[in-house]
Amino acid sequence: MLDLNRNRIDDGVRTIHLTAVCGTGMGALACMLRDLGFEVTGSDQKVYPPMSTFLEQKGIRIMNGYQPANVDYGPDLVVVGNVISRDNPEVMQVHHLGLPFCSMPQALNHFVARGKQTLLVSGTHGKTTTSSILAWVLHEAGFDPSFMIGGLLKNFDSNYRLGNGPYFVVEGDEYDTAYFDKVPKFFHYAPQVAVTTSIEFDHADIFNDLDHVKAAFARFLSGLSASSRLLAFDDDKNIDELVGGCQCMVQRYGQRDDSPWRLGDISLDPPWTKFEVLKNARPLARFRTRLFGEHNLLNALAVIAVADQLDIRPATIGAALESFEGIKRRQEVRGQKNQITVMDDFAHHPTAVHETVRAVKATVGTGRLIAVFEPRTATSMRSIFQDEYARSFDMADLICIRRPPQVRKIPAGQELSPERLVRDLNERGKEAYFFTDTDAIIDFLIRTARPSDLILIMSNGGFDNIHQRLLDNL
């Protein structure tokens, strides 16, 4: 049974051990703790570069595999990653030795966010992009922010930063916290300003259905203090149902006529997207960004609304938007070869796939958009979105669907059928093909791609380094 007295953080902590340290969030936390002056160690099941090398260069000792001996030195605190189960041998030793432990959000709150104002971005989609733009705007406005974000910001070449300013920017993840704390991570923060971009069904490994997801968001939104502010997207019926329970001030943003924050005229002038922002039905300013797609303009609009709340002038916001370089794996051009462009994107939910394909199609010009999709999340490998995926690729000219690489993790009878997806796409008049492995996709694209084509590769994993292998062989 969990000893709640040990699920705490004492002020006398000097040595900290992190389990599952090679994950994006846990690795960033380890670096932040090291930068704060703590002695830090870590362990993971598969320790390999570049994360392992980066951590070791920071002076963090990394152990390969979860072994009881990893914590025998008696760290003052153990931070347990959310991929770790109660029967993990290292965790069992933590309990045996009576070591204090906590979750990643608890550690962030205690060591990084304490004494700062938290600015949190929640939602099924757009958290990383919105948080990243916000962190950059604050930096360019001279606020010296701290942040931890789920993507690598090109402007900082990092997904974390320790600043001396008053603000801490964080993604409000709806995924669960730890084996001893099965609630979404966003419950652990008390934001002064929060953004909610969207609410859809996702994370089928921890949520039963959409109502289960909405219940989590309802609890989070209703728990925001009366002194907080919430910026909520105005074209999401699930958000509409929940904001009425908020005790904080709520403002809507989007394109609805009655929303205080609205997108106005939008025009394309490659590489720029230019857009007007209206505040309370009056023009605030015109902005331009290298990001493209309506979803990204809405992400930028949310940031503009937050920045305005913090009294950042439109001219400063505009300069930051223009110099924002983007995030790794979000519509990131990995290279060009023989006039063929290879782009990487993290899209995996059908809504994200649809919006990404639509946005990228507008940039292709005379060439074709070739969409390559690898379903590999616990949700995308399930049949729950079988029909939705068939409608997500309508703007693509050619579609390649890879067989999910880890179907064995999905309960029998609940697996996505990539073969059926390809058949459904063909019935919709799309040229689509099924592939059993990455090598077959590469061989096909080498034969098929031609000058002016853009190959959009969508996966939340490494996809067998398909991007570089394509560029090497095109």
Can you walk through the features of this model?
The protein has 474 residues and is an alpha/beta fold. The chain folds into 3 domains: 4-103, Rossmann fold (3-Layer(aba) Sandwich), CATH 3.40.50; 115-323, Mur-like, catalytic domain (UDP-N-acetylmuramoyl-L-alanine:D-glutamate ligase); 332-473, Protein-Tyrosine Phosphatase, Chain A, CATH 3.90.190. The chain is 30% helix and 26% strand. The chain has 14 helices and 23 strands. The chain has helices at 24-35, 51-57, 89-97, 104-113, 127-140, 210-222, 237-243, 294-309, 314-323, 350-361, 386-390, 418-427, 438-448, 466-473, and strands spanning 15-19, 39-44, 61-64, 77-80, 101-103, 117-122, 146-153, 158-161, 167-172, 176-178, 181-184, 193-196, 229-233, 249-254, 261-269, 272-279, 282-289, 332-337, 340-345, 369-373, 398-402, 432-435, 454-458. The strands form 4 sheets. It has a 10-stranded mixed beta sheet, with helices on both faces. A 6-stranded mixed beta sheet has the order 18-19-23-20-21-22, sandwiched between helices. Strands 3-2-1-4-5 form a 5-stranded parallel beta sheet, sandwiched between helices. Helix 1 (24-35) packs parallel to helix 4, helix 5 (127-140) crosses helix 8 and helix 5 packs across helix 9.
